[in-house]
Amino acid sequence: MQAYSFLLINKFIYNFSVGEKTMIYSPDMTLREARNLYFRMNHFADDGGYADRWIKVKVWHLPIWLPNTEGRRRAVKLHDIHHVLTEYPTTWRGEAEISSWEIGAGGLRRYYAGWWLDIMNVAQGLVVNPRGVYRGFVRGRRSTNLYSGEFTEELLTHRVGEYRQKLGLDIPEKDPEMADSFLFAVWVLISIAVYAVSLSLVLLPVVLPLTLIGVWVFSG
Q1: Beta partners for 67?
Q2: 3-state secondary structure string, the chain?
Q3: What global pTM score does this model have?
Q4: What is the pLDDT of residue 13?
Q5: Given a cut of 80, is residue 103 above it in pLDDT?
Q6: 180: pLDDT strictly greater than 80
Q7: 85 neighbors 35 (Cβ within 8 angstroms)
């Protein structure tokens, strides 16, 4: 009875209406054409900002500037192609969904900078878009991603439809299974822990001096 109730709740959460989506990137477009459109729509630089020395990320509403490392550049070039193939937007809600999808679809392998960003996005998504994060993870469990390889210019010559089929993104979504929900719960716990540690490190330079001042004032 408990397992049956769990499946009913699970199905309700997964099938919550999110509205019909209109496809932006036609299957007949090359990945180069689609990526260029993606850059223009999101007001990115012609090169996607890959050459920038610094990037801005937000830990909740707190902006943080981080160096645009070579590891991050390698990961984001594939991440941007994922945006094209999955049609997830670059909003907070969309980044949470695509990050969850990337983790569900096999993770980021050796792209360590991307792991941290994706996990942070999942944690924030649990607040702003929990159903989308869950759906993205389950969708990822039934597909794969590009992180098993490296970005090359040759990749951009292929068609969007070809790579949607290659990654399993053309397969109709199916209801989640208990294994999906269990693994999702594991990643939720990991994301919350990583987010808490990251937030603590960000706030430490502010909180520690204030704490020391407070101790000095009240002890005097």
Answers
A1: 54
A2: CHHHHHHHHHHHHHCCCCCCCCCCCCCCCEHHHHHHHHHHHCCCCCCCCCCCCEEEEEECCEEEEEECCHHHHHHHHHHHHHHHHHCCCCCHHHHHHHHHHHHHCCCCCCCHHHHHHHHHHHHHHHHHCHHHHHHHHHHHHCCCCCCCCCCCHHHHHCEHHHHHHHCCCCCCCCCCCHHHHHHHHHHHHHHHHHHHHHHHHHHHHHHHHHHHHHHHHHHC
A3: 0.83
A4: 42
A5: yes
A6: yes
A7: no
Which stretch of 24-38, 95-109, 194-208 has the lowest confidence by average pLDDT?
194-208
Arithmetic mean of pLDDT, 208-219: 52
In sequence order, the 6+-apart residues with CB closer than 8 A to the CB of 185 are: none
- Enumerate the β-bridge partners of residue 64: 57
